[in-house]
Amino acid sequence: MSQNPPNLRPDLAPKPVFDTPARPGQPRIGMVSLGCPKALVDSERILTRLRAEGYAISPDYDGADAVIVNTCGFLDSAKAESLEAIGEALAANGRVIVTGCLGAEPEYITGAHPSVMAVTGPHQYEQVLDAVHVAVPPSPDPFVDLLPATGVKLTPRHYSYLKISEGCNHKCRFCIIPDMRGRLVSRPAHAVMREAEKLVEAGVRELLVISQDTSAYGVDIKHAASSGRDGREHRAHITDLARDLGSLGAWVRLHYVYPYPHVRDLIPLMAEGLVLPYLDIPFQHAHPETLKRMARPAAAAKTLDEIVAWRAVCPEITLRSTFIVGYPGETEEEFQTLLDWMDEAQLDRVGCFQYENVEGARSNALPDHVPDEVKQDRWERFMEKAQAISEAKLAAKIGTRQEVLVDSVDDEGATCRTKADAPEIDGNLFIDEGFEGLAPGDLVTVEVDEASEYDLWGRVV
Fold first, then answer.
1. End of a domain among 350, 367, 395?
2. Which of 63, 183, 237, 452 is the most buried (most CB within 10 A)?
3. Helix, strand and coil percent figures for the chain, each rounded to 5
4. How far apart (Å, rounded) are the C-alpha atoms in residues 459 and 416?
5. Domain that includes residue 429, residue range
6. Contact 121/180 with Cβ under 8 angstroms?
7. What is the tally of structural domains in the chain?
């Protein structure tokens, strides 16, 4: 599971983007945001609504009148982390409201922590606000409580996650997201564009498009078109949306792109420079029988053909994916097929997880569960191969020039990302000389002069 970095925890967090100090008597709310970027967007929306109602944002437990814990419930390990975070907030503050994916199982939470003040499910914004109103009544002052144009953000000013839909229509046996977050519900295209425009106008340099299934955007509303504030029509289809977002002048990065055939229509937009040449596609495995047991399309060979076609249109494309090893019934032959597939596919960025049961998942009932020691061995072998591929690909970039986005600058250097690197999950490019004039959000050109397994070093040119 990909966890939020520690500085998103309120006991360690920097000041929020909206950092006006609380006025005397102003109620203050803290936030713990766990899980994926989609949950982070939910946290930002909740805090923005609260800020508009006159609440201040507390960067620590002690200063908060109540704390909201936005939980993750995708894996049992994530549930354990969420319960631990709830317990920590209770111990440090005592007044805790729980929301998020694990909130879909309120008895699970109250069984471990009966003293929580309220439990609400995922993307139930109104219920969260109601719970806060009961715990800490609002006290707004419209002449003082001003809201920033972008709302309250938990990410740096120069990039932002842009959620385009909720839920998922797939029925993968190992996944309980449809049970927690429901079926696909797409946002109207004009609403997505309006949010993106406001973010770019406020200085955001990179838009990270997220959902449970980005490729399926608009399917539920039959790809309906809707008009924006400028009178232009925007169609709710991922290809049209990517093109429209690309017109705003910011980097546009696509995450969680399910490998439907129409994904090939996105690649020319990358070749044209409208969106970043970066695809985050959850392949999960390569052996057709394993994919069948996962209830996913069993077309790994055709996927290799698609990858070849994508690279023919856009040679600089970066492909990122995640895989599961040790899935029930996975034989050594099936695992070896995955390793061989990796040799063929040569993916740039790879994450791998050992299978674990999740309460409510249909895969729990499958026969022939793989022993933990075998799962660990396969994970290590997979990551060894993935690391070797990454090391070779990054070594090939030495001597090239790359446009990079500066994320942070300290006394030792600047931490940046190339177009091939998403925040928190991919590598970095470090500049340790001639960085003094750089600031977060700058776009600069560097020449790469060093590489490791996952990161690059370079100098400004």
1. 395
2. 237
3. 35, 20, 45
4. 11
5. 401-460
6. yes
7. 3
Separation of alpha carbons 63 and 55, rounded Å: 12
**For residues 13 and 70, is the Cβ–Cβ distance under 8 A?**
no
Three-class DSSP category at 438: coil
C-alpha 93: how far from chain center: 28
1 in a domain, yes or no? no
Residue type for position 377: D
Burial 10-25 (b: 16+ CB within 10 A, else e): bbebeebbbeeeeeee
**For residues 451 and 75, what is the distance between their CA atoms, to the nearest angstrom?**
34
DSSP calls for 393-432: HHHTTTT-EEEEEEEEE-SS-EEEEETT--TTTS--EEE-
Do 144 and 23 meet the contact criterion of CB atoms below 8 Å apart? yes
- Residues 268 and 369 both lie in one domain: yes
Residues in binding site for [4Fe-4S] cluster? 36, 72, 101, 168, 172, 175
Q: Among residues 243, 237, 202, 208, which one has the least CA distance to residue 223? A: 237
Give the span between the Cα atoms of 88 and 82, in whole angstroms.
10
Phi, psi of 296 (to 5 degrees): -120, 160
Amino acid (1-letter code) at residue 188 = P
The strand pairing partners of 119, in sequence order, are 98
* Dist CA 57 CA 22 (whole Å): 8
Of 84, 119, 135, the residue at which a domain comes to its end is 135
What Cα–Cα distance (Å) separates residue 395 from each residue in 32, 340, 343, 367?
A: 38, 22, 17, 43
Q: pLDDT digit of tens for each residue in the chain (461 aa)?
A: 223 333 333 333 333 444 456 667 789 999 998 878 878 888 888 888 888 788 888 888 888 999 999 998 877 888 889 999 999 999 999 999 999 988 888 999 999 999 999 999 887 777 888 899 999 987 655 544 444 555 666 678 899 999 999 889 988 999 888 887 789 999 999 999 999 998 999 889 999 999 999 999 999 999 999 887 677 899 999 999 999 999 999 999 999 998 888 899 999 999 999 999 999 999 999 999 999 999 987 666 689 999 999 999 999 999 999 999 999 999 999 999 999 999 999 999 999 999 999 888 999 999 999 999 999 999 999 999 999 999 999 999 999 999 999 999 999 999 999 999 999 889 999 999 999 999 999 999 999 999 999 999 999 99
